[in-house]
């Protein structure tokens, strides 16, 4: 049972939070201020069931996590290109590896959904959360997949790149495995964030 004076006090505090929004603090700070005032007012949070579903993704979080991710993606791609160019093996052709292809696709999705889309439409919460998490998963798997591409997970010093018939193997078995694991994990993360 909610006492009338507690309810009136809560309404007054919600009105104060609304005045913060009018003064230009923005809707995200309004939600945080309202949540804090609700908890400190003694009014049960069950009176507003949506109070527990406040989205943790804010513009501040988005623009704080996006630049390091883009920097990591560009750094990983630049390192791979530099290594391919300076590989002193006349029998090998210079190619864009599968991990780099995945990284480039992730980079385009990151820039499009975390930078361009929010600036153009001011809509970022649901899609940007998914893209941000999936891109971080992919960049975390990138060193493992690159190591598998160059055969570093094997005990032998040689790699599977050189073959007698073709002279080059684009994707190794370990590389396919790590790429598949990262893709499955990305799907799981996307499905989880899409439903929560």
Characterise the protein shown here.
The protein is mostly helical. The chain has two domains: 50 residues, no CATH class; 137 residues, no CATH class. Helix content is 69%, strand content 0%. It is built from six helices and no strands. Helix 1 runs antiparallel to helix 2 and helix 3 runs antiparallel to helix 4. The protein is elongated and about 65 Å long. The protein starts with a helix and ends with a helix.
Keywords:
membrane, elongated, 69% helix, 196 residues, transmembrane, 2 domains, single chain, transmembrane helix, mainly alpha
Q: Which stretches of 5+ consecutive residues score pLDDT under 50?
A: 18-54, 157-166
> Structural class given helices, strands, pairing?
mainly alpha
The separation of the N and C termini measures 31 Å
Could you tell me the radius of gyration in angstroms? Answer: 25 Å
Our count of domains comes out at 2
Q: How many strands appear in the DSSP assignment? A: 0
What is the overall pLDDT average? 71
Q: Strand portion, in percent?
A: under 5%
The rough form would be described as elongated
Contiguous helical run count: 6
Order of helices and strands: HHHHHH
Sheet bearing the most strands, described? none
Oligomer: single chain
In helices, the fraction of residues equals 55-70%
Transmembrane segments: 62-81, 101-120, 126-152, 177-195
Keywords: Membrane, Transmembrane, Transmembrane helix
């Amino acid at each position: 049972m909610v006492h009338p004076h507690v309810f009136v006090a809560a309404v007054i505090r919600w009105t104060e939070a609304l005045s913060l929004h009018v003064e230009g603090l923005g809707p995200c700070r309004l939600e945080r201020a309202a949540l804090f005032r609700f908890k400190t007012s003694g009014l049960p949070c069950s009176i507003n069931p949506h109070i527990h579903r406040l989205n943790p993704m804010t513009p501040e979080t988005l623009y704080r996590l996006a630049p390091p991710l883009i920097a990591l993606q560009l750094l990983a791609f630049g390192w791979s290109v530099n290594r391919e160019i300076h590989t002193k093996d006349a029998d090998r052709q210079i190619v864009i590896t599968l991990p780099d292809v995945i990284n480039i696709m992730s980079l385009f999705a990151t820039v499009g959904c975390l930078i361009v889309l929010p600036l153009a439409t001011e809509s970022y919460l649901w899609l940007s959360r998914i893209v941000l998490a999936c891109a971080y998963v992919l960049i975390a798997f990138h060193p493992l997949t690159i190591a598998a591409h160059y055969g570093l997970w094997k005990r032998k010093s040689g790699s599977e790149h050189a073959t007698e018939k073709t002279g080059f193997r684009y994707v190794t078995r370990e590389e396919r495995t790590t790429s598949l694991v990262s893709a499955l994990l990305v799907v799981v993360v996307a499905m989880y964030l899409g439903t929560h």
